[in-house]
Every structure is written in C-alpha cells, then in structure tokens.
Amino acid sequence: MTITMTNNNQIEDQMALFSQLYPGVYTPIPPASRESKPRRRRRKNKGGDASGLMGAKKRKLSTEQVTLLEESFGNEHKLESDRKDRLASELGLDPRQVAVWFQNRRARWKSKKLEEEYSKLKSLHEAAIVEKCRLETEVLKLKEQLSEAGKEIQKLSSISSSSSSSDHQRCCDHQGFNSSNSPSTSSISMDRGQPDFLGDFGYEDDVMFYMPENSYSVQCMEWLNLYM
DNA sequence: TTGTGTTTTATTGCCTCC
DNA sequence: GGAGGCAATAAAACACAA
C-alpha cells in the first residue's frame, strides 16, 4: 500500500511541479474532473474470500511464473482473452490472477515511466538555468564594456571643450558629436530611434549610466531567484 | 524480536466501449 | 448489459534496522 500511496503522492507532487515550471504546457487534471462523484470507500475483506479465487491467504507467484509473465508483458502490455487463458493454463494460475497481474504490472510501468519523464524534464530545466546564468553574466560583462566606452566618450568630449571653438568643432565632427556637447546621431547613436542601443544613457554625479529599455534583466533575476 | 517501510497480490467501484 | 480497464485501496509478504 505504501508504495502505491507514495507513488501517487510523488506523481501528484511531480505534476504540480511540472505545472509550476511549465505553465501552459502542462495543466494538471484536478481530481474533481477525474471523478464526477466521490469514490465510495471499499469495505475490508478480513480473511474472507468473496471471489473464491484464493484461499485465506495471498499466494505469492513463483519466480518462474513471474518470469514468464514479465516476458509476456514485454511482448504486449495488453492481455487479450485467449492469451490470458493460454498463460493461465501454462502457469497453473487462475485467468483472473493473470489479468490482475497484468493490471498491476501496467500500473507499475506507468508510474515508472512518469518518474523517468520527470527526471528527464528536471535535468533539461536545470541545464536551461545554467545556460541562462551564463547568458546573464555575459550581458553584465557587455554592459560594463558599454559603460567604459561611455566614460571614454565623456573624457574625449571634455578634452574637446577646452580647445578652441574651431578645433572643438573639428574634433566633434571627427568624434561624431555636435557642438552642444551632446552625442550626434550621425555616427554614434544613443537615440531611442536608433537600433544601436536598447536603452537610454544619462549622467549623474559625473558618472554615465545606462538604463535598459525594458525590464527584461530584472525579470530574469526575479525568475532566477525563484528557482535557485 | 519487533516495529516500520516497501512490494506484491487482490478487491472494489467507476467508466468506457462494443 | 457485460467485459475489460483503471484508480484507489486493502492486506499479506517481505526486507531490514534497531
């Protein structure tokens, strides 16, 4: 009983996790929709034998019987009536026992398959997390480079402002700045309309900063915090 | 030896299909 | 309506640590 209960609980947990990790991909079927009305709890059969199938005690199948049943299950998971009868007479079992064995075997197989599927998806998910972290690190590095380049531009523009106005104009023309000290859109674009940068630059306390256009990186970090 | 967890065999109740 | 499938569950059998 325990394993069945454990497996069922595990499966429920796994499915809950699936739906959490892959919303929209997997939607768990709520128990209510699987069953229209509450299942009646079956009564205990203490020692009695209502079916007449077995005696007072449960009979464990022999290794040979199980081997043959496993072999048959390997060939075909479903059990047609004639195959059931043939197997039963071959093994010296009641056809009902063969049917029950196949039923339970299918349940075990299903549960195992589900567990395998779960671990496969889990490792895929973990790999995706690692890749995401790598990409985020790369983004941070690139942002740093961008910031350095911005500082360099600022330095050059302050040098040019101290020169004569003609020199200044020449320099600015060469560097791609206009005479009002703001970046020109001709060679270095920082306008939102240009595709070179995805955000805006600004100055604060003599430090140039870059503000991303969207909040993607923030979303990423929040998402990462959820699963790491 | 005994308590506890796991596995296996079997039952019950419901559902679907022919 | 009967056969067969499945989920849920019971209970025997088994494994194993304390």
Low-confidence stretches at least 5 residues in length (pLDDT < 50)?
A: 1-38, 46-56, 168-228
What is the strand arrangement across the widest sheet?
1-2
Q: In whole angstroms, how far apart are the ends?
A: 35 Å
Radius of gyration: 35 Å
What string gives the helices and strands in order? HHHHHHEEH
Secondary structure tally: strands: 2
Report the mean per-residue pLDDT as an integer: 66
Fold and architecture overview:
This protein has 228 residues and is mainly α. The protein contains seven helices and two strands. A two-stranded antiparallel ribbon has the order 1-2. A hairpin with a 2-residue loop joins strand 1 (200-204) and strand 2. Helix 1 packs parallel to helix 5 (95-162), helix 4 (81-91) packs across helix 5 and helix 5 packs antiparallel against helix 6. The two termini are 35 Å apart. It binds a DNA duplex (18 and 18 nucleotides) through helix 1 and helix 5. It comes from Punica granatum (Pomegranate). InterPro entries: HD, HDZip_class_I_plant, Homeobox_CS, Homeodomain-like_sf, HTH_motif. One of its GO terms (cellular component) is nucleus.
